Amino acid sequence: MASLQRFMGMGKCPIYDSALSYYEEARYSEAIPLFEMALRECDDPTVQKLARNYLAESYAQVGYRRLNQGDWERAHTYFTMATDYMPNYADWWFQAAFAAYKQGNFEQAQNALQQATRLNPEFARAWLLWGIVQYANKQHEVGLNLFQQWWTRNGGDAVSLQNALRAHREQRFAEAQATLEQLLQSTEDNLAEYIRQGDSAYQRGDLQAAEAYFRQVLNARPHYADVRNRLGVVLTAQGRLEEAVDQFVAALRINPRYIEARINLAIAYYELGDHAQAREQYQQVLEIDPTNCVAREALQRLAA
């Protein structure tokens, strides 16, 4: 999803500008080589930082498409490349884990899930998938207990779980695993679609629809930092800056190292005229990432 920061690099590098145009049109496969070229050929530090961010998001968007096609190997590759550039997105680690699991690469899946749950300890679907991965890896009791714990904690229907438990008791392990996977998918299919629809609505300028989609997700899963950031961007675009600040702050409570949300929060504070708070947020970005050129240049402008 396009962020509030995208315009900071425009006009400084024609290659970046072209890549961003493709990105905004959801032509991610065409944007990727141009963002890569911008990284090689454009020396401006702001362009370098933003090109990396948008390159990561482009890889992730292609990864989602590969997931929908059942192309697990390439989906895993794209999400892994996305996390190489932006390692603080818990959902991308989850998607990489799911793609690895579908290939039977359980160690890779667990490594990715470790990252996802480190970033967001309340990431229920990551814990559910971890339970499935353990179950598939012959740790039946451990995996089933973990899945059941988070299924109940997440408000899952106890009746729906009974088929998996029954199959497990009768040692029909493959059937139990398939049922657990169906339960995971049933909790996420609508939410993932809402996120995609929200991103699409934002890109075409339908801000009210985008807001509605993101709020539907948060009503069901209030601990999605990525979606709170998305909602904050939409609210900022509508001029509802105080509400946007609330969403960015909520995202940072979930993941304090979420640099994009912190920069977006700084931008919102700046637009509200609270330059001291904006400065503080940019300084915190530099504490996390001392090389962040977006925050560094913003602080220089604030000091001028």
How many domains in all?
3
Helix residue percentage: over 70%
> How far apart lie the N and C ends?
31 Å
Structural classification: mainly alpha
Computed CA radius of gyration, to the nearest angstrom: 20 Å
Q: Low-confidence parts, pLDDT < 50 over ≥5 residues?
A: none
What do these coordinates show?
The protein has helices spanning 14-24, 28-41, 45-69, 72-85, 90-102, 106-119, 124-136, 140-153, 158-169, 173-203, 207-220, 225-237, 241-254, 259-271, 275-288, 293-303. The protein is mainly α and 304 residues long. It folds into three domains: 1-92, Alpha Horseshoe (Serine Threonine Protein Phosphatase 5, Tetratricopeptide repeat), CATH 1.25.40; 122-221, no CATH class; 224-304, Alpha Horseshoe (Serine Threonine Protein Phosphatase 5, Tetratricopeptide repeat). Helix 7 runs antiparallel to helix 10 (173-203). The protein is globular. The mean pLDDT is 90.
Question: Which features would summarize this protein structure in a list?
Answer:
0% strand, mainly alpha, 3 domains
Short summary:
This protein starts with 13 loop residues before the first helix and ends with a helix. It is mostly helical and 304 residues long. The model has no long low-confidence stretch (mean pLDDT 90).
Element layout with pairings:
Layout lengths: L13 H11 L3 H14 L3 H25 L2 H14 L4 H13 L3 H14 L4 H13 L3 H14 L4 H12 L3 H31 L3 H14 L4 H13 L3 H14 L4 H13 L3 H14 L4 H11 L1
